[in-house]
Amino acid sequence: MAYGKPESGSVQATQLEQLLIWLREDLMGELQAINQYQAHIDNIDNAEIKDLLSHIRDDEKEHVAEITHLISRIDAIQRDKFLNDHTAAPEERVGSEGQDDKIPTIGSMFGQK
Ligand SMILES: [Fe+2]
């Protein structure tokens, strides 16, 4: 199973699998965008354009964080990997307590509580 154990039994596994596939594709796109903006920043001499592209690049980094959190809410295995990431201190781990209070739940994404 590609997505791990779903949080809610009321949501069809196929919906979750498709959602995770799309979110992972979205995540790849955000990461590629960061690299592309950085390459352009590194090759442009105009300071004003560099500043603007840097701002956009940083927005893409925010999107990476948001999508990563969203994936961790849906994919139980991924969430477990983030929560037990031995390379980060417990309070720095993705999905650690207090970090994702405003992230939608599986139920809210499908019109449920
Ligand atoms: Fe983005």
Structure description:
α1 packs antiparallel against α2 and α2 crosses α3 (76-83). 63% of the residues lie in helices and 0% in strands. It has one domain. The model has no long low-confidence stretch (mean pLDDT 84). It is globular. The protein has 113 residues and is mainly α. The two termini are 25 Å apart. It binds fe (ii) ion (FE2). Fe (ii) ion (FE2) binds next to α1 and α2.
Low-confidence stretches: none
Computed Rg: 17 Å
- Main beta sheet strand tally, sense and closure: none
Taken as a percent bin, the fraction of beta residues is under 5%
Average pLDDT, all residues: 84
Query: How many domain modules?
Result: 1
What is the end-to-end distance? 25 Å
Number of helices: 4
Structural class: mainly alpha
- Count of β-strands: 0
Ligand kinds: fe (ii) ion
**Helix percentage range:** 55-70%
Q: Note the overall shape.
A: globular
Helix/strand order: HHHH
Features:
single chain, 113 residues, mainly alpha, 4 helices, binds fe (ii) ion
What secondary-structure arrangement, pairings included, does this model have?
Layout: H1 13-43, H2 47-74, H3 76-83, H4 106-109
This protein binds fe (ii) ion.
Fe (ii) ion binds at residues 30, 33, 60, 63.
Gist of the model:
This protein has four helices and no strands. With 113 residues, it is mainly alpha-helical.
